[in-house]
Design a protein that fits this description.
The complex is a heterodimer of chains A (520) and B (138).
Chain A lengths: L2 H7 L12 E2 L8 H12 L9 H4 L2 H6 L14 H11 L9 H29 L1 H24 L3 H21 L2 H7 L4 H30 L7 H22 L29 H4 L3 H22 L1 H9 L16 H36 L1 H24 L3 H30 L4 H8 L1 H23 L7 H21 L27 E2 L1
Parallel strand pairs in A: 1-2
Helix pairs in contact in A: 2-10, 2-11, 6-8, 6-18, 6-19, 7-8, 7-11, 9-10, 10-11, 10-15, 10-17, 13-17, 13-19, 13-20, 14-15, 15-16, 15-17, 16-17, 16-20, 17-18, 19-20
Chain B lengths: L1 H24 L7 H18 L5 H19 L6 H16 L12 H25 L5
Helix pairs in contact in B: 1-2, 1-3, 1-4, 2-3, 2-4, 3-4, 4-5
The chains are: A mainly alpha (520), B mainly alpha (138).
Chain lengths: 520, 138
């Protein structure tokens, strides 16, 4: 039975199948971005999980009535000592979890995000975005429920397994689920369309963190910090939103194009006319050059974003609260609180620019091209990082903040522009799966960037460098990363013709079945 | 798309005007310039929504400015979120839809509902983040 017969007959076509979601005539393509946003806004809460660290760090203490954290036994002064404490905390019920124990969640998130996107990207292209969205919802929300149970019985391993591993798989599937669908619906604005969805991933924590705070305050009692109840509530809310998003996905009819739109000038060699098969994409130098471009752009941003608040406090000291003569190491408790409040504001500003940059730069790339957009990231990034030590030396706090806000916008813009870059280079047919494989660059950068920043930071402090000069060398190292990224971008040329699939290649995913039953 | 943007902008701005007039001016919730802003800003949104068919980018900018201004004048609460979000989403749709000639983009309430469903949490999240970020300037 052909796909057409199956679909037209209505037998054997499941609710989640690809054939089921082929859009009918007159379908408004602007319904697809909100569906993608619904999923990305939910999974984006992964960025905001640190909101649970403080209450989880005193959960046992609160339950015992002391209200203070109860430390697990072990040597917390060395790295391996801390690992030993974490190993104990994985199964212990009588001591509290530290930030070090819980911080592994982020590693799990981003390793499993990249891994699952790379492994199941091909499956997503075959089965369609709706099925992938539903599986993502089940993994992310199911993972939250497992974590809730883990928190209620105080088992750290369940938290890691639930949200970190299973939830991380949901992150990967959810992240790539709308990419190729949006690119097919918006051939005229590939960058803007994917930028909108990926903006949601950046914005998820912006909504999820304050929501989690409200819920924890609602559920907490004198003997409970209210975290497991919050996980349950958020799993329920996210499940509704994510299922709404998954069921909102529609695929265009094969050959569909916006009314009045004509494909761009055929002389533009940076936009492929054909499609490169998933199994061949990673054999091309272009894939690895884009991998390097993304990895270096993210590495240069992620380390500083993670250290934004302490960087500002250490660099500007008392200037943050109107006492320029006070150094970071001389802060009193009250001054530390004031500086932390300003640092938190800086982090908020960073996140706004990170999110806004996803939409702005991706949309701009539709006008100026992807390669030129990445040139902008690298050139402007180099200028911002190279100027940062001078701005800090001159105590130009506002300009310093502005330059890092621009960097944050380009960090987000790098994520949002890359799907369209891939579609331009490799065609739209397997772009979701190729994008999934490319996300391993993100996982790599997630380790590389913070390691560079944290290692240099700690080693310079150990060498006795004054706190307000600690970041100077770090900025120059990050500048060098961006220069390397610029060179990698420069080397990207159109994919050789031999890699493109022939017209009669049977590898076309099922969406190509022209007569599949249109959905409303 | 364009009709959806216009309808959202008009509903949001008219709601905002009602709030501004009865809650903030006659009700005395604010004083001085803020009272004036509470009326003028919804009017800016109404003007923006009205000219949506004539000049989308300007209409979009006016609606977004109106939404941001109302957020500043009213604060972001349960009731004030209605005009702010509706006008803001209308403005964004007008901006995003600029130059668009898509098929199937006639009157489509489903698009407006879908964008409002994701727009409300986004605007709330942005508002909370802006409040936190404002500490850097204090």
């Amino acid at each position: 039975m052909s796909a057409y017969e199956t679909a037209a007959g209505g037998h054997g076509v499941g609710l989640l199948d690809r054939q089921r979601i082929i859009a009918g005539p007159g379908f408004n393509r602007w319904l697809v971005p909100p569906a993608a946003l619904a999923i990305h806004l939910c999974i984006g809460m992964a960025y905001g999980f640190s909101v649970f660290w403080v209450p989880l760090g005193r959960a046992v203490g609160a339950a015992s009535g002391t209200g203070k954290p109860i430390a697990c036994p072990g040597d917390a002064t060395t790295f391996f000592g801390k690992v030993g404490i974490t190993a104990h905390a994985l199964f212990a019920t009588d001591c509290d979890w530290t930030q070090f124990d819980l911080g592994w969640m982020y590693t799990l998130f981003f390793v499993f995000l990249g891994g699952s996107a790379a492994i199941w990207g091909g499956w997503l292209e075959r089965e369609g975005p709706r099925k992938a969205g539903v599986v993502a919802a089940l993994c992310w929300c199911g993972g939250l429920l497992i974590s809730a149970f883990g928190v209620s019985v105080h088992q750290l391993w369940m938290m890691w397994l639930g949200s970190g591993v299973i939830g991380g798989i949901g992150l990967g599937l959810g992240y790539i689920s709308p990419v190729s669908t949006l690119i097919k619906w918006f051939p005229d604005r590939r960058g803007m369309a994917t930028g909108m969805a990926i903006m949601g991933f950046g914005g998820g924590a912006m909504i999820g963190s304050p929501l989690a705070n409200i819920l924890m305050n609602l559920f907490k009692t004198p003997t409970s910090v209210g975290v497991w109840q919050t996980f349950v509530a958020m799993a329920a809310i996210y499940f509704v939103f994510m299922m709404g998003g998954a069921f909102g996905y529609r695929l265009p009819q094969p050959g569909w194009r916006p009314q009045g739109w004509t494909p761009p000038d055929r002389n533009n060699v940076m936009i492929a006319r054909g499609n490169v098969h998933l199994k061949d994409a990673h054999k091309t130098p272009q894939f690895w050059l884009i991998w390097i471009v993304l990895c270096l752009n993210v590495s240069a941003g992620i380390g500083i974003i993670g250290a934004a608040s302490p960087m500002l406090q250490e660099t500007f000291g008392g200037q943050l609260f109107g006492e320029p003569g006070v150094q970071f190491t001389q802060f009193t408790d009250a001054q530390r609180a004031l500086a932390a409040a300003v640092g938190a504001g800086f982090v908020g500003l960073f996140s706004l620019f990170n999110i806004g940059g996803r939409f702005f730069w991706a949309s701009l790339s539709d006008a100026i091209g992807r390669k030129n957009t990445y040139y902008c990231f690298f050139v402007i990034g180099v200028v911002c990082y190279a100027l940062a030590p001078t701005l800090a030396h001159l105590h130009f706090l506002a300009l310093f903040a502005v330059s890092f806000c621009i960097i944050a916008s380009m960090y987000g813009g790098g994520f949002a522009t890359v799907p369209a870059y891939l579609a331009d280079m490799f065609g739209t047919q397997f772009v979701g799966a190729i994008h999934g494989r490319l996300l391993t660059a993100w996982s790599t950068a997630g380790i590389l960037g913070p390691v560079i920043v944290n290692y240099l930071h700690d080693s310079r402090i150990a060498a006795g460098i004054p706190r307000n000069h600690v970041y100077r060398q770090i900025f120059y190292v990050l500048t060098a990363l961006l220069v390397l990224g610029f060179i990698a971008n420069l080397l990207i040329v159109p994919v050789a013709r031999k890699w493109f699939m022939k017209e009669e290649d049977p590898a076309t995913p099922v969406s190509g079945q022209a007569a599949a039953r249109p959905a409303a | 798309m364009s009709i959806a943007a216009m309808i959202l902008g008009l509903i949001g701005s008219i709601f905002g005007l009602g709030m501004g007039l009865f809650g903030y001016v006659l009700g005395g919730a604010t004083a001085g310039l803020l009272s004036l802003a509470a009326v003028i800003l919804p009017l800016v949104g109404i003007i923006g929504a009205s000219m949506e068919r004539a000049n989308r980018p300007v209409a979009g900018i006016l609606m977004v400015v109106s939404a941001l201004g109302m957020a500043y004048a009213f604060g972001f609460g349960f009731w004030s979120s209605v005009p702010i979000v509706l006008t803001g989403v209308g403005g964004i749709l007008a901006l995003v839809g600029f130059g668009s000639d898509d098929s199937g983009e006639a009157i489509d309430p489903k698009v407006a509902y879908a964008w409002t469903a994701v727009g409300v949490p986004i605007v709330w999240g942005v508002w909370v983040t802006v409040q936190n970020a404002a500490k850097i300037f204090q």
